[in-house]
Specification:
This protein has six helices and two strands; from the N terminus they run αααααββα. The chain has 153 residues and is mainly α. It has one domain: Flagellar protein FliS (Four Helix Bundle (Hemerythrin (Met), subunit A), Up-down Bundle). A two-stranded antiparallel ribbon has the order 1-2. A hairpin with a 2-residue loop joins strand 1 and strand 2. Helix 1 crosses helix 3. It starts with a helix and ends in a 6-residue tail after the last helix.
Amino acid sequence: MLPGQQMRAQQGRLAAYSQVANLETNPIQRIVMLYDGAIKFLRMAAADIEANDRVAKAEHTSRAMNIIVYLQGALDMEQGQEAARVLDNLYTHVAAMILKANLALDARLMRRAADLLAPVCEAWTIAAQSASSSPAASVGGHRAAPAAGVLTK
């Protein structure tokens, strides 16, 4: 694939993530869906490395990386303040791990990247459940609904 075609394909995948995310009415649930996808693709990429399936590994790694880039790009640093800065650092670290695991064909490191996202995904899942049961529900001392502002522009 030529570089221009790769860029258009990547933009198409990012648009697809955005479209899927917008299908859910709960903005926090959209975030959970993206995290679930990233974790799934990272674990699939790790399995692909172990199976020596470089084509599948490339596809799954790319899809996971696209989700991380999407999540990072959606951060609202002004509204999210410290939480957004922490997530930004997490996404930067996870992206570096993915790149390193991809180049070194390191399945363990690829799984470690997924493992770093799992507790954050769980926290968003709890926030989504709280928000759907009661819009004014408290999550860790903060209202659940404003938490979605961390990732919305």
